[in-house]
Amino acid sequence: MLHLSFWLAYFTYSIYDLQAYLGLIKGAGYISLRLIFLLLASYLHYFLVLPIWLTEKKIWKYIGLVTLLTIGIVSLRIFAENMILPHIVKNEAYYQTIKLSRIISTCWDTMVFMMFTGMIRFTVDRFDFESRQKQLENEKLVAELNYLKAQINPHFLFNTLHNLNYLVYAGSAKATEVIIKLSNIMRYMIYEANKTEVPLKHEVNYLYDYIHLESIRLSQVLNLTFEKEGDIDNVNIAPLTLITLLENAFKHGIRDTEQDCWIKLKLKIEKGVIYYEVANRILASDPTRQASGFGLENLRRRLELGYPNRHSLQITKQNEVYTVQLQLR
């Protein structure tokens, strides 16, 4: 479409420019003869010669073929003009002789159009290349993001299945409850986690199911508060974004052998920004503390991919309290 528009514009303007001198019919004939050789030169170069430079990278072969193509087209054009144009342009000695100035002018005219259409080819190829590169980059990022999501919760699932096995063996009524909550979690991870975004309320329900399952395995009452503020029904979020911080809080802040363990969750929606805070008491002795960095590094990478330049993650340790604050824009 771009090529057709250019040649139509050139043809129309040229006829408009010459009709006062030659008339409409003769002007059209004059321009048509010139246009035939410009089209021939431009698209022989476009389809046959230019790819030698763009794909094969053989610059000297390309220059040699451009030279031969130019000589051939210019020779044919001058011959055709000498045969036809004297009948159109009366008393025009220019088209009855062959001079160096005419040869140079015709070569320049031919090469300008070859270069112009060549620039179109170069530009289109460049955009196509960048588009393919962008597509490959996006596919790579999606694959990496899916890989990071797949690393979430394996230990939790194994522990839950182990607890479920114990509850079933003991004949506990909680076994059915565990199966339902675990089913909800698995459904969310399988059907929702592959999406780019999910409703925030679905993510919150996922957190509640996780909290419920974790509380079942504890022998003491779970001291956990979850404060919510703002409209969570009309906000979306990348799936499995909030769970990592809650997992870390359970892993490093709750233990049956410790007293006064607690977790505080705060979720606030304000002007399209999600504020999420998780705090827990720092246990006196935490044998898993040295291995706690993987989950946060996983989260940081997923935030870089899903919320580039649109997130903030701050971690503070003060007065035996571990606090993580996350903002998503």
Automatic annotation (TrEMBL):
The keyword Transmembrane helix applies. GO terms for molecular function: phosphorelay sensor kinase activity. Residues 143-220 form the Signal transduction histidine kinase internal region domain. One of its GO terms (cellular component) is membrane. It comes from the Bacteria. The chain crosses the membrane at residues 6-24, 31-53, 59-79, 100-124. Keywords: Membrane, Transmembrane, Transmembrane helix. This is Signal transduction histidine kinase internal region domain-containing protein. It comes from Chryseotalea sanaruensis.
